[in-house]
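ZP: hey, is the magnesium ion complex queued? I don't see it on the tracker
AM: it wasn't, my bad. submitting now with these inputs:
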Amino acid sequence: MTPHLMLRIHQLPESVVAKIAAGEVVERPASVVKELLENSVDAGATRIDVDVEQGGVERICVVDNGAGIPPEDLPLAFASHATSKLARAEDLFQVSTLGFRGEALASIGGVSQVSLQSRQPDREAGAAIDCHGSVLSAVRPWNGSPGTRLDVRHLFYNTPVRRKFLRTTSTEMGHVCEVFTRLALAQPQLHLTLRHHDKAVYEVLPTAALADRLGLFFGAELQEKLYPVEATGGQVELRGYVADPSFDRGTAKMQYIFLNGRWIRDRSLGHAIQEAYRGLLMTGRYAVVFLFLTMPADWVDVNVHPTKTEVRFRDGSALYNLVLQTIRRRLNAANLTPRLQVPPRMPWQAIPSGGQAMAGGTPVAILPPPPAAPPQAAPQMQPSSATVANGTTPEPQILLPRQTEVRAIQLYSAYLVLETVDGMLVIDQHALHERILFDELQDRIRAGTLEVQELLVPETVQLTAEQAARALEHREALAKLGLGLHDFGGGAVLVTSYPALLGKRSPQAILKAVVDHLAARDRAPTREQLFNELLSLMACHSAVRSGDPLTQEQIAALVARRDLANDPHHCPHGRPTSLLFSRHDLDRQFRRI
Ligand code: ADP
Ligand code: MG
């Protein structure tokens, strides 16, 4: 028999309970900074100064000018489940303060050496108390300026295992800065400072202009790329900024969501944000947004997570839609043609013919001359561009507008170059056609006017049993897209119909692409995700390819349809469809202005 089984059930000592509780609230120095900052905000402070040493591991000192604590309450501040912010159970569903669990100071005091000094503004004198590993000192008088001062030293000094889990000073300091940034964004009216080893890291003055604060923390370059958003849905208010898709990131960390002055993490809203940027970002890239939500306190349950960073909304789906629609609309309203970034002052230098010019030591690629023979002007059948209007498909791929006057030339059988009011536009023919087809497929499916080509003789496609099962599992979604499938057994699948828009592309090839796509998914996509993915897959397969020569008519048709696309600037995968060399940049580079 193992010895621990012989122990009798007993109540754990207070100090052990405190250490267990601390594990939930205090993970690292940044957690302490977060709790202390929140307490200062709840106390109505207008200025908070934070001083840390060794990333907060050795010392965290937070001084505020808030309401202070009555001397007689000082010992209670470190008692667990002791709070001045809640009285009744009902209050739990009406939380308007950042804290309410009464656990932070008890937890922090259990795993460090804290000294607390406080004075209420209307009292002559204040008082101080220490708490070392849950052990309280006597309360003594203290005569400092109004407000509260908490000095936390030697975090985890009595829990060596937890101390070992701490990372390097710079990593811990990074987390501290992140916590500080979140609070500074959530509460722009506050004057905040952060110092590390007596050196100023941030000095943030109160401001009404949130954009300035964003500029301060994330740089002027971001600030210039922000679009303001504002919307109301019932009692929910949404405002904030969303960044231009060109300012994308490799992680979702720069998607800041604040709810009633509190930074929160929310997977569903994160998804809404990415959905709003669909088609504007490459796969694996994340948008940068700062969203501030306000709603009645009883519309949200903040008591689901010890650190209160995860919440539960009463009407999550309405909120999801509000976020998605608001951002989507704003992005659509912005002109998002990627502009070619030319260095502001490229030093003049003689350009060796056909080679590379050296500008300040940096090689600059020079565009080679256009192909010798300009594309044929006469209408022409191009065997390699079978999907382009060629009379043999039931539905012309590129509808010819009645009259078009575009002057465009094709380069490398891949790009179309044309003159616009703003400058020289270079279009990726495949990406643009893909975008147009995507929109068209989507519109037709919504309107129920998708043309489906029934196959007189169904085409048999041999797959592995698993692939076949996957494809058949999504039979309904695929049928909506015009791709009719039947189980033939033994891994064989019959294709009975396909979208007419696919033209002559083989149904077999498209089914295989669909199967590959489904196999690459590690998680089951939502219905809408899957639908959009398949839609873009079909658009991609049906579009003209890079390398397909186009006739002048086809070029004209493609370019004319650009204006009809919902988002003519990006293909459904998020690659740009076109690049603009602005007139202004051209003039500047050639020293005309
Ligand atoms: P909670 O914030 O959940 O109430 P804490 O353990 O963080 O619990 O704090 C306990 C109590 O100590 C608070 O309810 C508050 O009354 C008091 N307190 C803590 N920090 C401050 C502060 N900076 N200014 C004024 N009162 C404070
Ligand atoms: Mg608190």
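AM: back. The pocket of adenosine-5'-diphosphate (ligand 1) is lined by residues 35, 39-40, 42-43, 64, 66-69, 77, 83-85, 99-106, 148 (CB under 6 Å).
ZP: great, adding it to the tracker
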